[in-house]
Every structure is written in structure tokens, then in C-alpha cells.
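Re: duplicated header lines in exported C-alpha cells

Our pipeline writes sequence and C-alpha cells for each protein into one text file. With two proteins the header for the second block appears twice in some exports. Here is an export where it did not happen, for reference. First protein block:
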Amino acid sequence: MRALSLCILPLLATLAMGLCPAPADVKDADGNKLCARLYADDSPYYDECCAGDFLDVKSGDDVPYVPLKWNNHISSLAVGTRCELTVWSKKPKEGNTKKFTAGAQPRLVEVKRGLLGDWDNVISSYYCKCN
């Protein structure tokens, strides 16, 4: 029974994150480590999150003005191992701010921003660093 539990736990963790990569798997197409990957799509279903178009973020990327296509269009994200992504709700690096550490955030609609808001489709600036 214990062996079965050890096999099921990674599967359950994967299902909870949906399509979002694990921190160690946040890499570009060539296999190079990324600081983060930002996604345009999420879903009410976790297994369909971290999908659609994505924007790769390298360590040291300091972007006070997110490209127009991405401004206020980020719905899920994944941050690499030993990395930290800081985001702002307004440009250039103004408004509400939030730090995300290693891990996946499949639905930014579930991350509170202030008293009544959330982080879905409001990211306008970011800075990412890895140790």
C-alpha cells in the first residue's frame, strides 16, 4: 500500500497544478532555465490552466512596460526554482505589487490583490531574479 501511495502522490500534485510546469521544469525550448513563464490562459479546470500563448522571462529581466499584447492579459504563471517574480498592476512599476516565488499559480483569479481585486489580467510590469 505504501508503494502505491508514493506513486499516486506525484500524480495528484501534477493534477492539482494542471498543465503548469514544476519549478525545475520552467525552461525554454532549448532546455535553458527560465526565471518564470507567464501564460495568457487559465480555466476553471486546473488541468487546463497554464495554456495558450506564453511569455518566457529570464533571470534579471526588468520590464517596466509589458509588451502591448501581454499588458493585462496574464492569467497564470510558473516561477522557476530559486527564483522570484515581482509584478505590478500598473506601469511603470506602479500600483499594487506582488511577489511570486518558485511554484505554479494556475489561476491568478484566486490570488487576492487588495480588498476586492485579484491578479487575473492586471499585470503591467515585472522584474524577475534567480539565485
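Second protein block, exported in the same file:
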Amino acid sequence: MPDRPRLTPAVAQTRSAVREVLPEVGSSGGLVALSGGPDSLALAAAAAFEAPRAGVPMGAVVVDHGMQPGSAEAAERAAAAATALGLAPVLVRRVAVGRDGGPEAAARVARYAAFEGAMAETGRARVLLGHTLEDQAETVLLGLARGSGPDALAGMRVAAPPYLRPLLGLRRSATEAACADQGLDPWHDPMNAALAHPRVRLRRTALPALEEAIGPGVAEALARTAAQVQEDATALDAIAEELAPDLAELAEGGIALPVVALAANPPAIVHRLIRLAVEDEFGRTLSRAQTLAVARLVFAWHGQEGVDLPGIRVVRAGGRLEFTGA
């Protein structure tokens, strides 16, 4: 690896992107989530350059999912690269991947649990993730295909503490170029070529087909869509969060919301108030289907019984929606 790699446009882009999020990392420091692939390796190199200049401690965490032969060697190689770049501490965590939700979802759950453990162990407050513009486009397309609603169309956010995605506005070609320009040798995960995974099929077949049918710029357009939906979602969230303290009432074993006051708001706000009530009182996140089931007690009330959610019972009684532990 050259001691003084030339500052190319790709290297400058990755460094600038990291520099913009460092104030969010703060003096407690962060960890780069490093797989050794082009995206995370370019991120690690940019963070290793920028963080010391900003007085921000920066380390790395490498997660070995153990899902394929050679994964341990790949993890150690990534850790060695992080150490060579000057990141510290560098942690390697091997995780056990379950089966719930399929291999991709299970791996994600295990990976984020490892990130949380690494933050707790090191006292670092943020983890930097190497998602790029293509990852954002794939997320939006998956949300469209699954009918997951506005939250899915909003995609990933650059700042979703404790996670930061500095490279979300950069194309994957920029991270690959940044690695090449700095003499970095990224690892290419064979699973990223396995068409059995929906996201890989999107990357390899769907997005190129859309580009061919519609013209170039599809990924950028999807990313712009996500940014616009994020703006709207942020505004609606702020309205709901302002209303919630005035609406929430105590209920035996839980919390209650007055139906008349709820119904005076548009559905988008009501849905958020319902989710906020459940998150604040029970620490759980409702799916859209669950949220709509509860909202029918407000907008389509015909004397029906309540709604049973995991560990929560919701009924309409005395002009209130009452949320209690089941």
C-alpha cells in the first residue's frame, strides 16, 4: 500500500463524505463496520484519514458470520487492513446466525447485535456503515415490491443514531475506485453474487433491466425519491411527537389515547401516534399491518372486539383506545 496515495476524485469524495458526519460521531468516537469489501474498506480508509484530523477516535469492528468456508480468514484479513490503516481498536466478532426470516435477515440481526456489543465494550457511540447509493436504490425497490409503505420508500438515512452511513450518496464505482487509487485490495464476498438472495437479484438483473428499459439514472432517481419521502416522514413524525404528550393518558397496566382527538387527525398522524404509544409504553415496534388493525378501532369502529398484538391488547372503551400488557 503506498505511503502517500494520490488524492483522486474518488478518494476526495469518500473523505469528504466521512468528514461531514464526524461532528455526529463526537469525541466519544466511533467504529467502522468493516467486511473488507470495497465499500467498507473505502469507508475505513477515509475514516482513518479524516478522524484523527478532527480529533475523533475511530476503530473498527469486523463481523464473521461463519456462513461460508474461509469466512474467518476473510475477517482476519479485514482486521489486518484496519490496523494497517491506523484504526484502533479493531475488534473481530464471530456470530451465530439464526434462521428466522431467512439467511439475509438473520445475518443482519446477528450483525447488528455484534455492533451493539462492540459499542458497549469500547464506549464508542457510533458505528459507520458502508452503504452506498446502489444499496439505497435496492432498499427502495424492495420496499416497492413488498408494498411496505412510506417508511420503506424512505429507505436508509445517513444519520440514524447510533448508525451513520456517510457513503449513501456515492455510487459503488466511487468506492471501488477509491480502493484502487489507494492501493487497497478489497475482498469480494461470494454471497454478493448468489442470485438466491433477492437483493443480489435486484443488483444483478432488475436494476440493469430498468436502466436498459428507462434509461440511465434509475438508481439516482430512486435515491432522490427516498430523500423526498424522508423529508415528509420527518415532518409528520415531528407533528406526531408534538401531539403525543397532550393526548396520552394513563390506563391500568398501560396507556390510552382519546378516540375523538385521534380521529381529528389524518391517518398518517394517527398511525404515528399509535406506533409512538406502543414504542414508548412497551418498547415494541408495530408493523404497518398491525398499525392499520389498531387504526380500524378509530376509523372503522362497529363495536368489534379489540386487537391482539404480541404481548399487547388494544381495546376501544369509554371513548379511548386502551393499550395494556397481554
